[in-house]
Amino acid sequence: MKKIFIVLGIVAVSLTSIAIFKNFIIKSVVTTVASRITGAPVHMDGFSLNILSSTIRISGFKMYNPSGFPKGILVFCPEIKVIYDRGALFKQKRHFLLVEIELKEMGLTKNKEGKLNVDSLKIAQESESPPPTPMQIDFLNLSIGKIVYKDYAMGTEPSVRVYDVNRHKSYKSVPNAEQLALLVLAEPMKAAGIQGAKIYGVAIVAGVAVLPIAVAATLIGKDSVQQIIDVSSEHMYKVSLEVVKRMGRITKDDASNGVIKANINGTMTALILRKVSDNKTEITISCRKYMFPKPDIAGGVLYQILDKL
């Protein structure tokens, strides 16, 4: 009886080791393929393939900036879920019944030469694009969070804007891995109304632009952002004032009432700080240009303040 338990223990350990080794191998292959397609470094924190449930789960997917740009993350997806066709798993053309991608943040960067990081990817260079990777995705659900846009074209310190997209889109019949990548890269920018990206042309040629079948949310048109932060009001005011001075021209500095006003990128920007408790402060930032709301600039100001805290 004791030998039976020993044998069962060895079998259990062996099966566990095989499963871990299998996931490690497939994770390495997926990472390599994604890097080859995009031309940028790719990393994922976790990868699991469950044959019984026909499910693939990827956690902490990160695509980094290509060479020629400051170090940083271009795409961050906390979770990707795939339901695949087991019959086609080991065929040359993979068949996925459903792909769900949570794109939490996209780091859009313009370098000193005025070039966008997405336009420097291999996938955006039609002459350099490899042959399409065989794949069929029946349905794709893409959840888009926000875009952090850093523009280094005007100096060493970037101009930062944050676009809270907050949209959920669905697509059908995505024919290959390249079109999937183009969707993930181009759709957040289109939803935020960012113009002039070369990657748009590649995406349209590839047919990506005609694939959407549903839109479940809309952009919020307010001019302000607000957040409660775990710092004292005095420290928050000091950091906010330093950031705003670097970004633009101060027109009002009223520490007693927690009010800062400035001209940033041609906008009338106002910061209002309210003490919630000894170590909690509510900050509200609003931006308007010619009376039109500019929540993207307000989000950029908040982003840089949080980055300095």
Short descriptors:
alpha+beta; Alpha-D-Glucose-1,6-Bisphosphate, Chain A, domain 4; 2 domains; seven-stranded mixed β-sheet; 5 helices; 42% strand; elongated
**Helix segment tally:** 5
- Overall radius of gyration: 23 Å
**Overall mean pLDDT score?**
79
Counting structural domains, the number is: 2
Overall 3D form: elongated
In which range does the helix fraction lie? 25-40%
- Poorly predicted residue ranges: 5-22, 208-221
Strand content: 35-45%
For the record, give the distance between the C-alpha atoms at the N and C termini, rounded to a whole number. Answer: 63 Å
Strand order of the largest sheet: 1-2-3-4-5-6-7
Q: What profile does the largest beta sheet have?
A: 7 strands, mixed
Q: Kindly state the number of beta strands.
A: 13
The computed structural class is: alpha+beta
The SSE string, one letter per element, is HEEEEEEHHEEHEEEEEH
